[in-house]
Amino acid sequence: MSAAVLPEAHDLPSATTPAAHAVPRHLRPTPLWWRDATAAVGWALVLFVVALWVAGGGISDFTSVGESLTNVGRLTGLVASVLILIQVLLMARIPILEQAWGQDELARVHRLVGNTSFNLMVAHIVLTVLGYSAGTDLGVIGTFVDETLHAPGMLLALAGTVALVMVVVTSVKKARRRLRYESWHLLHLYAYLGAGLALPHQLWTGADFRSSTVATVFWWGLYAAALASVIVYRVALPLIRSRRHRLVVSHVRAESPTVTSVVVTGRHLDRLPVRAGQFFQWRFLDGEGSSRANPYSISAAPDGRTLRITAEAVGDSSSRLATLRPGTPVLVEGPYGRLHAGVRTRERSVLIGAGIGITPLRALLEELPAGPDATVVIYRVGRQSDIVLADELLSLARAKGARVVAVVGHRRTDRESWLPADSAHLGEAEALLRIVPDIAYRDVFVCGNPAWMEHVITAAKDAGVPAESIHHERFSY
């Protein structure tokens, strides 16, 4: 590990955004204020739904226990409905949302909105049934059965609820760990089915959906926007983009016994709005498994002629990359993610990767500006034999004036850490400061195992790196 001297105050890199280079318009990052704007729109939709409930007499319908329960059930159902539609929009791969939030934040918001909408949906069912049963002699179970069998659209709504329950159950961490990514992804698509099956019930029996022209236009408009977003961005755009660029496998190279690189070529790839560090959802149309999309980052900066991915064999889909043949057609969704040079807030950078997580950082190093020690790459591996793309990293480092530090060794067992066991005498942040003394004045890009990344992010913050200068991408599900 080479020593470095902490620069004097007047030599510190500027904390302002780096000077803009000549970046084509289609590659410029979405400004962060779009994140705040879209979040404000989401909150406005929820508040507008509450306002519609108030305007429809929601505040005054508390004359009896049964009416009170039913009335609160109406409100929870309305808010659950709008949150489910917001969830659909979050899953629709709308480019401005993807670029403004990034996959990490978008996934976190998606989980939060999903859990909230599911809990409110359950509350809606329970409160409504209790409210209706208070005015009948059927009892709670009898009322539920009667409403399900005789109220318009209720059987469809029940089927939609079952679909959503399945999505929620399989999204629990313990359940996710038992499922292959491909299986989990397929099950997760039932969220669309759940939202769609609930629509007839809401339009036929939901008085709040038909209480006024404003309410009717709002709900129909929101459903139409959600449906259009899914069709345009999950189906049409990937098909159009793949057809326009005619992507095919050019060649396949084994980087190690378990790591494979796939190079894809096509037409007019210089017009594809992708930057080093971003990822696509890839489908290789070679027969079995071609219907499943998998996220892989590009492992080399786009050159306008080819795209390259490098993946480790950890499942069926990643293992079959080694068997791909030249000429295999490729469909892609994306690009996605904010792990690229356009999000930098400082002039200098630190790239910290573990295992196969080094691949998007290798591409990012290629795009970052050159300069003496302008970029430091920290590569965490368990063994020397686990290092991939070593020659490329060293060659790029020499060309860029960058520094590469390999942190090798098995993980510690005495505590959770991003460091190996032989660094037990070092603190988490202390180790970073030893490698990069001026890390507090740099952007930090992190990619690797999600649990390991959390330790790196915490250590970087403890070392003085502000949260807005830490950029990361998780590929967990």
From TrEMBL:
UniProt KW keywords: 2Fe-2S, FAD, Flavoprotein, Iron, Iron-sulfur, Membrane, Metal-binding, Oxidoreductase, Transmembrane, Transmembrane helix
Lineage: superkingdom: Bacteria
Source organism per UniProt: Humibacillus xanthopallidus
Cofactor: FAD
Gene3D superfamilies: Nucleotide-binding domain of ferredoxin-NADP reductase (FNR) module, Translation factors
Compartments reported by the entry: Membrane
TM region positions: 37-55, 75-92, 112-134, 154-172, 184-205, 217-237
PANTHER family reported for this sequence: 1,2-PHENYLACETYL-COA EPOXIDASE, SUBUNIT E (PTHR47354:SF8), NADH OXIDOREDUCTASE HCR (PTHR47354)
Membrane-related topology note: Multi-pass membrane protein
Coiled coil: none
Protein name per Swiss-Prot or TrEMBL: Putative ferric reductase
InterPro entries: FAD-bd_FR_type, Fe3_Rdtase_TM_dom, Flavoprot_Pyr_Nucl_cyt_Rdtase, FNR_nucleotide-bd, MRET, OxRdtase_FAD/NAD-bd, Riboflavin_synthase-like_b-brl
CDD domains, A to Z: FNR_like_3
Gene Ontology MF annotations: 2 iron, 2 sulfur cluster binding; flavin adenine dinucleotide binding; metal ion binding; oxidoreductase activity
